[in-house]
Specification:
It is built from 30 helices and eight strands. It has 707 residues and is an alpha/beta fold. α3 runs antiparallel to α5.
């Protein structure tokens, strides 16, 4: 998952919300001086980096208000300019406005995702609607839009280069899509909706963080089947939570998955699984059902005001898919074969359970446990055989090596960059003898940190601003005992390569304008580089160097590597259905219009219509579906992973028929036409430039083993 930069000015609320905020004159006083480290141009090494070591939570509010005032002044300079509107004095001036706001937003978002403890949730609750309001204050500024429209209307005579032409179109289109042409009454209604949404997003996220901080405590008698390194991690977590001598299975995927894979205690597998899948759905003060329902209704109402049938139509207009029908057609084409594969997988599991005299019917908490048994029976392979070769540090080295071999990147650890937590390490990134970025690595779970893994850009590359890329990768691994390596699953190793693929995309940027660089692409394209990057992990040249046994120091045997390759399409039914159920329900929610939706009941009803296998639940049930309910980012857009995977499958076949990723010519073609171009050209054009044609989706079915 890619989390984009700072506080991008999406639709927000009305200027009336700001009658009590400081004026620019007021904000140049003591408050501004005290919080200048958040708003002023970053200083220090490598062209300037965020002053994470100075951050005080109490500074976020005054710094944000000060930055808003600064941007207001910059916008006034554009709208009050007596000169005729030009590309330079309007579009380029607007492109560079809000730098202070972006800087404080970048740091704020780090705390929101990684350190939401202490007083931060209260600050976030207060600031969320204010930031949304400020977004609308800009996009509903009639004088600003009038000047943008004036430039847009003369675009055919301006002799712009292709990048400038696209920038002008995007600026104009973004304003129109945010309601710039609505009546004053409609604008106010949109603004009110956006403030409500911002508050609800914040509540949903905080409720989910609360439930993910909980744990199921077990004793030594409950550890049968669990690997020793995992047991040590559970003991460490229990001690951290004040239960020394016990073992804590935290309510996160990184703890639930290995427990339900290895534990021989079916009763405990069910207990841990239920705690996990019921996050946000416990009818308590942290329940997310009503919040999700409110969000859906507000989005539908806003879409109607914008002039679209549904929120899904509004969102997909600027995606590669263009329409909900196109996205649904792809999902439905894959759904049937995936469900059929699940039934085959379950039948294989049931045979093993019956042969062992288990006297059970396979249930969701059995799936991972018996899938491992089937893998062992079919491929003579189990996760416990693979995991000793997957040391977290070595997988990081593998990511660096592949990026160097394919694209020439060098990652050099540095100690002179301030960090937001002692767990974070930093690297300067070089390419062709030139520094192109700074990369932060934050691998461990902690209180107040969002679950899962992601990439974030703190600063995007831009020649216009003389900016290099500053970005991070963030994960949630459980720390091992001191001196012991952290062993991760094969899925976790693939996830690391995936998220690092987002970072490589950002670091490859070669754009003049800041809004066109890095991962600023359509949501259903942005997952393409990250998902493709996963495919380099299983290659022998990578595993021979970096899949090293933590005790013997020997590389993974060729026979074990071959087993991994042979089993690569194993359990694809489960993986596809678990994900695709989420993508389908997401789209169905957002195609339902202004209907009152009980998200819990809707989930059950629509999944039943889809013939969802009873042995699987959605990867993200609605009450924990942060992709679509913690912000607007992936709303009506969770299909993006499948859409991108169609691009990936086609591109992967090109790589492998042209000498592979490390020795053939395809890596340069891919870097030049995909990774480096950002949003300087439309994404479908970029793909055609790379491959010479549009995507062939048959490759997707071959990749997933459904052909």
């Amino acid at each position: 998952m890619n989390r984009r930069t700072a506080l991008g000015l999406m639709a927000g609320a009305s200027t009336a919300a700001f009658v009590t905020t400081p004026t620019l004159a007021q904000s140049t006083g003591g408050i501004a001086i005290a919080t200048a480290y958040l708003t002023q141009a970053w200083t220090g090494p490598y062209g300037g980096v965020p002053a994470f070591d100075k951050v005080k939570i109490a500074d976020f509010e005054p710094a944000t208000l000060t930055a808003m005032d600064a941007m207001r002044a910059e916008i006034r300079a554009i709208t009050d300019n007596p000169a005729q509107p030009t590309f330079q004095n309007v579009i380029e001036a607007y492109e560079t406005s809000g730098a202070a706001y972006d800087r404080v937003g970048a740091v704020y978002n780090v705390w929101d995702s990684n350190l939401s403890t202490g007083g931060f949730p209260d600050v976030s609750a207060r600031l969320s609607p204010v930031k949304a309001a400020f977004g609308d204050e800009i996009t509903q500024n009639a004088d600003l839009f009038q000047r943008i429209e004036a430039v847009y209307n003369q675009r055919d005579s301006l002799k712009l280069n292709p990048q400038q032409d696209r920038l002008l179109w995007k600026k104009y289109n973004n304003f129109v899509r945010a309601g710039a042409k609505l009546s004053d009454a409609q604008k106010k209604e949109v603004a009110d909706i956006n403030q409500q949404l911002a508050t609800l997003f914040n509540r949903f996220s905080n409720n989910l963080k609360h439930d993910e901080a909980q744990a199921t405590f077990i004793t030594r008698d409950d550890l049968d089947g669990l690997p020793e390194p995992f047991i040590a991690a559970l003991a460490s977590k229990a001690k951290e939570l004040g239960k020394d001598g016990m073992y804590a299975v935290q309510n996160t995927r990184s703890a639930m998955e290995p427990f339900t894979t290895y534990s021989t205690r079916r009763d405990l597998r069910e207990k841990v699984w239920r705690a996990y899948i019921m996050r946000g759905d416990n009818n308590d003060q942290w329940d997310n059902k009503q919040i999700g329902s409110q969000i859906l209704k507000l989005r539908a109402k806003r879409a109607k005001l914008y002039g679209y049938p549904t929120h899904a139509h509004w969102r997909l207009e600027v995606a590669m898919a263009k329409t909900p029908d196109n996205a649904m057609n792809l999902m439905e084409a894959v759904w049937g074969p995936a469900v059929n594969r699940v039934h085959e997988e379950v039948a294989d599991m049931q045979k093993i359970a019956d042969s062992e005299g288990a006297n059970i019917t396979i249930a969701p908490w059995d799936y991972r446990f018996y899938a491992e048994k089937v893998k062992k029976a079919k491929y003579d392979l189990d996760e416990s055989e693979v995991k000793p070769y997957l040391q977290l540090d070595k997988i990081q080295d593998a990511m660096f090596w592949a990026a160097n071999k394919m694209y020439g990147f060098e990652f050099i650890q540095v100690k002179d960059v301030p960090v937001f937590h002692p767990d974070v390490t930093t690297y300067k990134v070089m390419r062709a003898g030139k520094q192109v970025g700074v990369w932060y690595y934050d691998p461990y779970a902690r209180e107040g940190k969002s679950s899962g893994a992601w990439e974030t850009e703190y600063q995007g590359q831009s020649y216009m601003l003389d900016h290099i890329c500053i970005c991070s990768n963030n994960c949630n691994f459980i720390k091992a005992e001191p001196g012991k390596p952290i062993l991760i699953s094969w899925d976790d190793a693939e996830t690391m390569f995936h998220e690092f693929g987002h970072a490589i995309h950002a670091l490859s940027s070669n754009a003049y304008y800041p809004s066109q660089g890095g991962t600023n692409t359509a949501t259903d394209f942005v997952e393409f580089p990250s998902q493709l990057n996963e495919h380099w992990l299983p290659l022998p040249v990578v595993l021979n160097q970096f899949a090293i046994h933590y005790e013997t120091g020997k590389p993974m045997p060729a026979e074990l590597q071959a087993k991994l390759v042979r089993s690569s399409k194993f359990n694809q039914g489960f993986a596809t259905v678990e994900y695709l159920a989420c993508a389908l329900i997401d789209m169905m929610y957002h195609l339902a219009g202004e209907t009152d939706i009980d998200i819990d009941a809707f989930e059950k009803t629509e999944l039943a219509k889809l013939n969802m296998p009873k042995e699987i639940v959605m990867r993200h049930r609605p009450t924990q579906f942060a992709h679509i309910f913690a912000d607007d980012g992936y709303s009506a857009g969770y299909y993006s992973y499948l859409w991108s995977d169609a691009l990936v499958a086609d591109a992967y076949e090109k790589f492998m028929t042209e000498g592979g990723p490390f020795d053939g010519p395809t890596a340069k073609n891919y870097f030049d036409n995909i990774l480096s171009v950002g949003d300087t050209i439309p994404q479908d054009v970029a793909y055609r430039n790379f491959l010479g044609r549009d995507v062939n989706r048959d490759a997707l079915m071959r990749l997933r083993g459904f052909a």
